Amino acid sequence: MPSIDHSPVPWRTAVKIATGAATPLPPSVVPSSEATGRVLAAPVLARGDLPGFDASAMDGYAVAGRGPWRVLGQVYAGGPVWPAPLGAGEAVEIMTGAVVPAGTVAVLPYETADLNAAGPGPKAHIRRAGEDARAGDELLPAGRLVTPAVAGLLAQAGADSVTVHGRPTVRLVVTGDELVTAGVPGPGQVRDVFTPMVSALVAAAGGVVTDAVLIGDEPELLAAALTTADADVVVVTGSSSAGAADHLHGVLNGIGARRLVDQVACRPGRPQLLAELPGTRWVVGLPGNPFAGLVACVTVLGPLLHGLSGRAAPDLIRLPVTGDLRPAPGVTRLVPVRLAGDHALVVPGGRPASLRGAALADALAVLEDGWTTGIPADLIPLNGLNS
Question: Which branch of life, at top level (predicted)?
């Protein structure tokens, strides 16, 4: 068997490999009410003019010509359309969203209305038909994430269904004889933190955890968990290092996996990996220490899921970072930081096994070899991971 190069790749190289490894999953048509958090695979066109009619933008009076004006009646949103054009000097009381009568030159808001004035004033307070879009215009391009605002626009436009990329499915395999799932751990035990943490990250990145299993440190159990998984991605925690209980590398060799990332030159999180299984499925290996596992999540798992779901990579913030840290020659350090206006402050507690610092942080700062306090660094926001 040929030797395997276990040399760690630079952190940015690992992110780039994971980002480009996968293509978006095949698209499908779903109800717009179920599309939030997914990515449009086709443009959305306006089915009609937006707005579809001239509508009042205020509660007040629709007026025609110059004043003074005589009020003829009332028009309500959703009520009957005023039956005839308004003539000069005529007005109707009108509610926000109601169809303005033909002949209306302006709506006078209640707050400033003077029906005896000579002119309607400089602002019409009318939403004109088609001022947002005309029928057939592209409202949203392919590749747009369906956010709450997008969901509202889809409803406003009458788009009851949309074409979106598939949502990546994830099986989570948490390894370790020492793990417990409830209560305070006893001597020699630790709580499973990966199931809640990785599930939240997967959801934030556009995927869904279809099942999560805890298994002991036995290679046969791990091989079975990988080969029977009916998911796009299998995330394995706690078996990616080189210890006696770390079997992921050997199991991957035995099932014909192709490794793209095998160790990353970062601290914490060096023993992480990304591999492709036969049948275009993916394996992500996370270190067993919780904060190191979180670093691996933002390094390879998040970018892989973005690629599968069709999401663009999130923009990084860049700010000066201040803090008292010892240098780590030859590696990239990822440390928790809090935003403080025009800079970021290192949060204590960024040890591999501790999540306290990350839980109190706004972002992870990417500190390159040679960084010293005050030098700008890229920041990976943690809001989506901590929510």
Answer: Bacteria
